[in-house]
Amino acid sequence: MSNRLVITIDGPSAAGKGSLARNLALFLDFSILDSGALYRAFAYFHNQGLNNQDIEGSIKELLFIPEDDDTKIFYKDVDITSSIRNEEIAKVASELSALSATRKSLIDIQRNFMPSNNLIADGRDMGTVVFPKAELKIFLIASAEVRAKRRYLELQNRGQEVNMRDLIVDIEQRDMKDKTRTLSPLIPADDSIIIDSSSMPLDEVLSFTKKLAKKELNK
Ligand code: DC
To answer: Which of 94, 108, 111 for a ligand 1 pocket mutation test, highest count of atoms within 8 Å of Cβ?
Structure first.
């Protein structure tokens, strides 16, 4: 294992982790591990009937291309971003992510992701399980309503039709599942810094986190 610097950003869905991770990575010139995308890709390949071993192989072939406000995900030259970033896949990903076989398939892929680069790792268990020794751990939260609104706008921008009420219910149900599962539940690491972005604009969250990261880099 290299002695790279790792910053983890964990929290429930649509708390703003992706945007914070992208902006912070851009500012610090770090790579990003979007672990949620790996769980979604797992669900996508599972839906295509692949077994766990073949899913692992397919996930290792994924290409992540960061863009201004999104990261495009390619599999064998095909852009599968919108095939994995939708609510149906999110539900399957949430179900499968509670299984030990799924988490086992993904743990080494996550730990070995861009091994010689400094890393921002975004997910649910980055600070507790995958990178327990990370130098800086952020746990980002926001109310279900605020998160549903953000997810609504995000999906609308992707041209997907969604109903706000359904989104709130889906988000609350998924949170409950993620928090109460036995394996890698969604909980803050003891040494994490909890930030509530319910009434804090994401650019304020970003500047606060930049300060924390700079402090870490200057150690
Ligand atoms: O962050 P996201 O919405 O793209 O994540 C999709 C699902 O994957 C989410 O329901 C929980 C699961 N997940 C997980 O169990 N562990 C992670 N580190 C990241 C995501």
So the answer is: 94
